[in-house]
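queue> pop job 88
queue> type: inverse folding (structure -> sequence)
queue> payload:
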């Protein structure tokens, strides 16, 4: 609903400008005043339509979520994964290729260093208890 608030603020500012222009009474501002008044008159019905449309959509979404809560959870999870994947692809475009390769190599080296003692123990145990 931030868009609606922003449009309302815009209309309030336009009305304030219109009042200032009326107070000045300069003839050059009359045309501008008329254009601003026409813009305000054209935006107000659209704003009301957007409010009605948003409330209808919210009511429909509420009904669907109440009727099928687990489907809504699954849909939210899938949408979150999709947004995350898109964000990762966009973010990877801003990382230099050499930096990405060095980070992958660092991660691989840390993973190998961390797992090496456990691999050695597992091999030793396997050699000691190997049945044949």
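queue> result:
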């Amino acid at each position: 609903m931030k868009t609606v608030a922003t449009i309302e603020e815009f209309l309030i500012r336009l009305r304030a400008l219109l009042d200032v222009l009326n107070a000045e009474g300069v003839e050059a501002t009359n045309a501008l005043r008329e254009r601003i008044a026409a813009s305000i008159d054209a935006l107000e019905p659209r704003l009301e339509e957007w409010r009605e449309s948003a409330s209808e959509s919210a009511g429909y979404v509420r009904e669907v979520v109440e009727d099928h809560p687990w489907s809504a959870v699954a849909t939210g999870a899938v949408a979150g994964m999709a947004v995350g994947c898109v964000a990762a692809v966009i973010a990877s475009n801003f990382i230099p290729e050499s930096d990405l390769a060095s980070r992958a190599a660092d991660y691989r080296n840390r993973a190998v260093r961390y797992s090496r003692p456990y691999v050695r123990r597992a091999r030793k145990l396997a050699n000691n208890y190997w049945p044949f």
